[in-house]
Write a structure and sequence with these properties.
Layout (H helix, E strand, L loop, with lengths): L1 H25 L10 E2 L2 E2 L7 H29 L8 H24 L11 H17 L1 H7 L2 H24 L8
Antiparallel strand pairs: 1-2
Helix pairs in contact: 1-2, 1-3, 1-6, 2-3, 3-4, 4-5, 4-6
Bound molecules: cytidine-5'-triphosphate (CTP), potassium ion (K) and magnesium ion.
Keywords: Cell membrane, Lipid biosynthesis, Lipid metabolism, Magnesium, Membrane, Nucleotidyltransferase, Phospholipid biosynthesis, Phospholipid metabolism, Transferase, Transmembrane, Transmembrane helix
Enzyme class: transferase
Organism: Halorubrum ejinorense
Length: 180
């Protein structure tokens, strides 16, 4: 029962989990804010780039399409009724994750935090909250059927744990400048 909830939560959120990690690998180039400042600090900072955002979003969408192709064998193997992703839902999850991360950087700069500074709580949940918000807006019936209260509860507990583990791992591998 809990295993099925965890498996469903992980499957349904994978298109939102991958973009931030893909952005770390792809990042660089022109910052979204073009170097502009607002109220004495960068609008977003050099850590939010057009290329990272585009590649991150694309990676999440492609992952959703790959999961669609695997849905039958995966469901049969685990005995779980995994959902497929319509394109609008996939885009909402992937682009929502990137927007949540960008929004968090905006808040970090407003609160005097330099690029790379930690903001515990926000760092671990920003992308999930916006990804879920977007997908509930864009594909409401699908989102309501997939993200039941049980699945949502698992997402809120599991995401910070996965975030910490993947970021410490990326830092240890030298892919990321900070372990958060
Ligand atoms: N990245 C990017 N574009 C994005 C998000 C991330 O290019 N939309 C890349 C950047 O190279 C960034 C790295 O991924 O430095 C790590 O992402 P993150 O930790 O979110 O950015 P920070 O550099 O820590 O900046 P901030 O303090 O604004 O979060
Ligand atoms: K971040
Ligand atoms: Mg960071």
């Amino acid at each position: 029962m809990i295993g099925a909830l965890v498996a469903t939560a992980f499957w349904a959120m994978l298109p939102a989990y991958v973009p931030n990690n893909a952005a770390v690998l792809a990042g660089g180039g022109r910052p979204i804010d073009g170097g502009r400042e607002w109220r004495g600090a960068r609008l977003l900072g050099d850590g939010k780039t057009w290329r990272g955002t585009a590649v991150g979003t694309l990676a999440g969408v492609l992952l959703a399409l790959a999961l669609n192709a695997l849905v039958e064998p995966a469901s049969a193997a685990l005995g779980v009724d995994f959902p497929t992703f319509a394109l609008p839902a996939a885009v909402a999850l992937a682009f929502g994750a990137m927007c949540g991360d960008i929004g968090a950087s905006f808040l970090k700069r407003r609160s005097g935090r330099e690029r790379g500074a930690a903001f515990p709580g926000l760092d671990q949940l920003d992308f999930v909250v916006v990804a879920l918000g977007f997908v509930f807006l864009v594909d409401t019936d699908w989102a309501v059927s997939v993200f039941t209260p049980g699945v949502l509860a698992v997402v809120l507990v599991m995401t910070p744990i996965l975030h910490v583990v993947t970021n410490v791992g990326a830092y240890a591998l030298g892919l990321k400048n900070e372990p958060w």
